[in-house]
Write a sequence for this structure.
């Protein structure tokens, strides 16, 4: 009984935070709502017995990834971007029936699965020791590939985020030449530098 | 003990909210956060399924999803910053250079 009350509380906060992320116009508020949502899901992981994932969720998602997002929001100052009238309001209103249809499908899927054979009774341990042993035996190759993926992401980010002030002349048209062609030239870049 | 279907229903609701967020928002940063929300809902479903069958493989899969999400967030934000440097505005409606 207590567990169900706790679940409903956590689920309610998670859904409210998700709605806050989608419906609030301010991106910073959205980021903080998402942190709240991730924290609630981490609590649900704990209730499921997945201790390692609960703390990985808080450290990796709510810690590292969301700090990155908040940094990006602060740097780009997009808070004022969505204030104007929406030029494609009619199209976006289509999202309501389509989202409702998706939700209906997923819930029907869950309901049809509810009749499937019940749990085996054995509960999976989610302790660090269990997950660690699993990652370094059965999932060793994917684990190592993850390191390659992260390295590739790091190199790619450095390439994308590198300042082009000094290298623009020597390198010729970069990958964003087509972007620049239709953008207000030069002045825009200088303003970013000042800011 | 909480029924597995509760977790799956919550996962479905969160996933739907994430998908709707991707569709209705114009700010690419918020769209990215909505994608993270949907990924997170899928993770919750994976953990719930793993609990049902009693083996921790689902949790290992969630670990890999987290690693890929971290890489995806870093690269995606770098792309957004690179676009913002030359465009000064941040609305997905205006980013149509790759559309033919």
């Amino acid at each position: 009984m207590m567990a169900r009350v706790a679940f409903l509380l956590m689920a309610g906060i998670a859904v409210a935070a998700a709605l806050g992320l989608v419906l609030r116009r301010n991106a910073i508020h959205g980021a903080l709502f998402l942190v709240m949502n991730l924290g609630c899901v981490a609590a649900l992981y704990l209730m499921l017995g997945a201790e390692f994932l609960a703390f990985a969720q808080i450290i990796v998602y709510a810690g590292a990834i969301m700090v990155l997002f908040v940094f990006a929001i602060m740097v780009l100052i997009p808070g004022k971007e969505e204030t104007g009238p929406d030029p494609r309001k009619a199209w976006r209103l289509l999202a309501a029936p389509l989202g409702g249809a998706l939700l209906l499908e997923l819930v029907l899927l869950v309901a049809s699965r509810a009749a499937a054979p019940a749990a085996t009774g054995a509960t999976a341990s989610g302790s660090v020791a269990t997950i660690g042993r699993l990652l370094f035996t059965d999932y060793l190759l994917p684990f190592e590939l993850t390191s390659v993926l992260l390295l590739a992401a790091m190199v790619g980010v450095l390439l994308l985020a590198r300042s082009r002030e000094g290298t623009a002349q020597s390198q010729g048209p970069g990958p964003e030449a087509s972007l620049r062609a239709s953008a207000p030239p030069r002045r825009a870049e200088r303003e970013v530098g000042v800011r | 003990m909480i029924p597995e279907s509760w977790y799956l229903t919550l996962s479905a609701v969160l996933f739907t909210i994430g998908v709707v967020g991707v569709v209705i928002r114009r700010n690419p940063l918020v769209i990215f956060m909505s994608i993270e929300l949907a990924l997170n809902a899928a993770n919750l479903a994976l953990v719930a399924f793993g609990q049902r069958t009693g083996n921790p493989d689902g949790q290992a899969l969630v670990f890999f999803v987290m690693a890929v999400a971290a890489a995806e967030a870093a690269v995606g934000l770098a792309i957004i910053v690179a676009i913002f440097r030359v465009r000064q505005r941040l609305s997905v409606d205006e980013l149509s250079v790759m559309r033919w």
Notes: Chain B has three helices and no strands.
